[in-house]
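Exam review. A common question shows you a sequence with its structure tokens and asks you to describe the fold in words. Practice with the pair below. Do the first one on your own.
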Amino acid sequence: METTLFLAKFLGLFSIIFSVAIILRRKMIVHLLKEFVRDRALAFMVGIAEMAAGLLVVLYHFKWDNTLESAISILGIAMVLEGTFYLFARQKTIKKLVHSMDSVSGYYFFAVLYLILGVYLAYTGFGLGA
């Protein structure tokens, strides 16, 4: 359970900080995503980093005994899948995916969803829900 709580704290705080930055800096993030789509080498490097981080979570923490453990395991699997996608997807496919999230409502929906996930993980990880 110690590993679960550490990952919940780390991933929770990371998600909160990152999602707040996404919410507050939409114009910059949209610009960065356009650069990301144009630079295949960058997408490949992001894929390597995300897949590696996801594999660390999956290999070290593949537990399903409660909601918190399951959420962390699912997040790790999602990271592996997304990272692998960036490694193998064609630039055109990545561009379509990024453009599918180009609407303002879709952008904020995913940002707030990520914020909610982060708050849940941090809240539970720091034992505030007990």
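Now try the second one, then compare your answer with the model answer below.
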Amino acid sequence: MTTEDMARDHIRWAHGSLREAGEALRRKDYPRTVRRAQECVELSVKAVLRALGVEYPKEHDVSDVLRDLHIDLPSWFEDALPRIADIMAKITPQRGPAMYGIEGQLKPAGVIFSREDALRAFVDAEFVYGQCSKFLEDWFR
């Protein structure tokens, strides 16, 4: 398997997570929307890093790696990186609570996340996926 194969696989999975987030939003399953949106963001970003050959920590939030990139990138993508990194840094801490709730407070996920939370997560994931998939299309051309 090549770096390109890995990047393409990550972005394919990201697309599936985004699609599932949209389906969950339509069903008013707001925690699942947030969880799938987070997965989409993580996979999209890691697809780009994999394509660039950048090693990243085995963590869910690699926004610091994005902020520290010193690679010649297309200007449109470089301009989007701060927003992508901010989205990743904001959505990653929601990953666990979106699935498990806040166990120490006996708050299930369903009472933590609102429609607004889910909509914001979905819109942000759409942006990240769109930017990352466009970058990969250009990069592997």
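Model answer, second protein: The chain has a mean pLDDT of 97. Residues 60 and 107 are 23 Å apart (CA to CA). Full marks require stating both points clearly.
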